Amino acid sequence: MQIVQQILFILLSAAAIYLFAKKSRFIYRNIFLGLDEKLNDQPSRRWRNLLLLAFGQKKMFRNPLVGVLHFFVYAGFVIINIEVLEIVLDGVLGTHRLFAAPLGVFYTFLINAFEVLALTVLVACAIFLVRRNIVYIRRFRQNELDGWPRTDANLILITEIVLMTLFLFLNASDTLLQTRGAEHYSQHVTGNFVISQYLQPLLSGISNEGLVAIERTCWWLHIAGIFAFLNYLPYSKHLHILLAFPNAYYARLEPMGKMDNMQSVQNEVLYAMQPELTPADAAPPAKFGAKDVFDLSWKNLLDAYACTECGRCTAACPANQTGKLLSPRKIMMDTRDRLEEVGRNIDANKTFQDDGKNLFSYITIEELRACTTCNACVQECPVSISPLDIIYELRRSLIMEDSNAPQEWNAMFGNVENNFAPWKFSPDERDKWAEELAAEG
Fold first, then answer.
1. Which segments within 235-300 are labelled E, that is strand?
2. What is the pLDDT of residues 344-373, one digit of tens each?
3. Which regions of 174-290 does DSSP assign to beta strands (E)?
4. What is the dihedral of CA 355, 359, 365, 370, to 10 degrees?
5. ∠ Cα 69 157 378 (to 5°)
């Protein structure tokens, strides 16, 4: 019977790893469908960002209570899953608590620490479920979360609660079997653990055979749940658990608000003013801005996959607060949806076949025009995502490729071109107001 369990476990592990690797390759390929962008300068600042924003979750602590609860969920889930190494080795080798003997008393300390963290994860996830579904928080009730996104958030919280509960009942049944001297379980007597000991009264009236069934069921469901969670991540907003780290490291380090000038446009102006500098092979720019995911940089596409859908960007957006259609969170979700669609197209046809769609099939012109470019969304994002970069590129395409701008904007563009300022006054007349003040004085 033991050898059958080992074979089943190896097959389950292999299938989980294969499926995760396959989806990971799909996402990696999709991200690098974007344009090249060099973001490897100033490594010390980048490592600092990674440590503070991804590991330390610095921006989450602007709301201390939520920050602490989120840290418990994140740290607890990650640290507890260190035990997965032991579970995997026990499953492959057919052993029981493989690390108990070599680690001795330290092993008991570790499991006790894991149980305390499991309890904090349980409590925090329960609070987050209440916040998302009972307490009215506007950013959790907006239209872009209708349907699957809201279900996704709830499902992952419930899954974490179930996994932590299984972990505690696994330990409770295991230690109870140890005290009864049951075969296989009494090889390594660890003693009771700090949290699961309080679950033992619920199990004390069950026979040894029943306890073994409970322990084995919890063991299998716990590891199968972790494997399922691993393969669920790439389809969920919780992919940020993995991608927050590279996204924080490769964040743009320029001051917020600094726009990237298009070098091709700068060259055109330079060559018009100084024709002698025009190279013999100079060619006009092929494209301005972005219409589809291929026109965005790989960092923009990494941003789309790293989005946590927390809505802090949208909650801080002044356009959204005043009732405009713009939601920076929706911009990122739409970009990711389009990128996934493009990826499936490539998989089906070996190369991308025009499907008559682009990013404007997902994101409306009204949304893009509502943006004030204030950078509030960039400032608020806990994992260094910039919806504004995508908005910039889409608006550039609308204006420079399609000449699609409101009349008010066109008037401003004409004033900038002719008067070097947004106002309809020539440069020679701009100081007249000062002369008038002087005359009145």
1. none
2. 999 999 999 999 999 999 999 999 999 999
3. none
4. 170
5. 60
